[in-house]
Design brief:
By secondary structure, the chain is mainly α. The chain has one domain. Helix 1 runs antiparallel to helix 5, helix 2 crosses helix 4 and helix 5 packs antiparallel against helix 6. The protein is flat.
Amino acid sequence: MKKMVLTLGVIIEILVLYDSKTIILLMLNDTEILVLQTIRMRLKGKEALSYLKVNGKDITLQHYYKIKGQLDATKLKRLHEIGQYGFEDQHLERIDNLELVQELLWKNYWKVHLNKPDTALRILREIREIQPYLSAYYEATKHVIEKEYDEGHINISSLGTVSTR
């Protein structure tokens, strides 16, 4: 049995794809999602139609370009919807996922550090690679909190305290 090794980059890409797909599914139908995927993969004309057909959508080239045009015309609307409905949940979910990955890496490190120093070193490198991502999310969180505070939506003095109820 062949073991699959997931690197930090693969894990983060999976998390990003999962998060992005969740938000996109709220706004687009199946055909639009597939057309968007062809755009991301830079498929043109017949290649795009082949991809759509393999994924269960048999449409004409004219219909493909119509959907592609609609997606292009609604870029800002889709960005607004992502910002309005998904940003905070997505942001927190990504922080939680990165922290979980980091925790699991540390657990694996402590299991192997004495018997497999090469594996332990690789795990430490993966942990190190997570740090910039977490720092960026924490910094963005700080800016979101400051913005909310400036707009009067939250009481900053209550952050980090435990309720006394």
